[in-house]
Amino acid sequence: MIAKRLLPALVATLACGLAHAAAPAKAPVFVGTDAPMASNAIYFVLTDRFVDGDTANDHRDQGGAHPTWDIPVPGAPKGESANIGYLGGDFRGVLDNAGYIKGMGFGAVWITPIVDNPDEAFTGGDPVSWGSKFTDRGKTGYHGYWGVNFYKVDEHLPSKDLDYRQFTAGMHEAGLKVVQDIVLNHGSPAFTMPVKQPQFGQIFDRDGKLVADEQNLPPYQLDPVRNPLHRFYHAYDDLVQLSNNDDQNPAVLDYFVGAYLQWIDQGSDAFRIDTISHMSTTFWKQFSARIRAKHPGFFMYGEAFDYSPDNIGKFTWPQNGGISVLDFPLRGRLGEVFEHPHSDYAQILDRLYLTNGPYQNPYELVTFYDNHDMARLNASDDGFIDANNFLFTARGIPAIYYGSEIGFERGKAEHEGNRNYFGQQRIDNAPKSPIYQHLKRIAMLRAKMPALQRGLMLPIRFAGQQASFYRVYQQGKVHQIALVLLNKGDQPADFKVGQWLQSGTWQPLLGDGPPVAIGDGGMLDATVGPHDVQVYLLDARVRRADLLAELTRLQEERGHPAR
């Protein structure tokens, strides 16, 4: 009797077990990053130097005895120029060219700081001359990094019916996110003026009230204990004559949290943080926590101008704020490889840090080869093409400095033409450039492919003029195995790839080549033209055992081993 009563339960249990045994195993997840910003390559615009879309906001008569409009750098060689005055670029100039930027394959635009800057040229410091560094005498705040009121838009940027909120709305309508460059560690130049100038060394609140004033005193003469206007600042200098905001003062944190929450509310999608290494990780932990309390997951990346991964990696760790960074260590190697035609791709490999590296997540780093603070990439057209082919297929979020799509002012540093005016004519002519044509080709491909945006990166071979690697994204209903083949040589290159190569039909995504059917243990043979790239796609889940093992290791060891 007992056996008869137990039999139905036993049958039900066995049936349930067989059902579970028959169910397919859940596919593993292979993802470099899920950060939404990773989908978007970034185009970096120094706003004043892009396009003057509205001459009504140029303020060409501003500054009185210290005018701010169009100030050529003295000592320029014949046929060359640089400028330290305003040249008219504005929100209208960027928005009018949103289609140009989106059409190249970018999903975000990083603009320089929008906050109010002084209304005169600076009279202190050392005079600017051709090729000089860390010199500011005679310079204006055209670049936006000399903030005096962080709650107010600088008057050179908006137009009638185009304030910041309307600008970001227009960019969003065009399919572009807006990355706002922000500064917290310093304001404007604050001392060494022969005669104190208005606004320099001062900070005002949202109501226009003066909250800080260095009063043209050298930092060691500040008295933050007794003078309330000095309490915003450290009583020691940091960068040239710039004010040095006190990151241990809660009022400083409150001021900037309030200011930058305001700009998020007006449409900023992400922040690039200037000079992040000049303030403590304790400060950044507090700042990021308060920003993300209102805007969970808000993406931020900092500039620590430092080629040591040990020094910059700490900012990415959760206990220090979880802020990504510009990838300077990789940038150093990109310059070495793509500025020199006979360089070795192997130089790049040890700066990828794909497992147990210094970063919380290497796939969220913003990758680049030049910007406004260093000499532009000094490469041939082919060198730019090769650099872009790598940047838009490798791990990270690529950022391209305005003009690099045509090799604008290549090799030039700040006071040698790096920040020169671009203008509408160059934009209209850009599609004729081979750099532009190849950039658009690879950037548009990245914009369509989750594997290139956020997939794990598995190197196969980096040697001489060739590099090959997989990018693999597997999550939910999306499964892409991409094989990237890069040739930076002057001759066609033959690739034979068998390592970790999964069987199936691989589709070439560039050019008009036929699909390639690969059997178990097969080899993919391909020829890639000089200074070119090919990407093959297998739209399938990962099945091959050794590929599964390698990707599982990459997934598990993606970040810093102690984090």
From TrEMBL:
<keyword id="KW-0378">Hydrolase</keyword>
<dbReference type="InterPro" id="IPR017853">
    <property type="entry name" value="GH"/>
</dbReference>
<protein>
    <submittedName>
        <fullName>Alpha-amylase family glycosyl hydrolase</fullName>
    </submittedName>
</protein>
<keyword id="KW-0732">Signal</keyword>
<dbReference type="InterPro" id="IPR006047">
    <property type="entry name" value="GH13_cat_dom"/>
</dbReference>
<keyword id="KW-0479">Metal-binding</keyword>
<feature type="domain" description="Glycosyl hydrolase family 13 catalytic">
    <location>
        <begin position="44"/>
        <end position="446"/>
    </location>
</feature>
<dbReference type="GO" id="GO:0016787">
    <property type="term" value="F:hydrolase activity"/>
</dbReference>
<dbReference type="Pfam" id="PF00128">
    <property type="entry name" value="Alpha-amylase"/>
</dbReference>
<feature type="signal peptide">
    <location>
        <begin position="1"/>
        <end position="21"/>
    </location>
</feature>
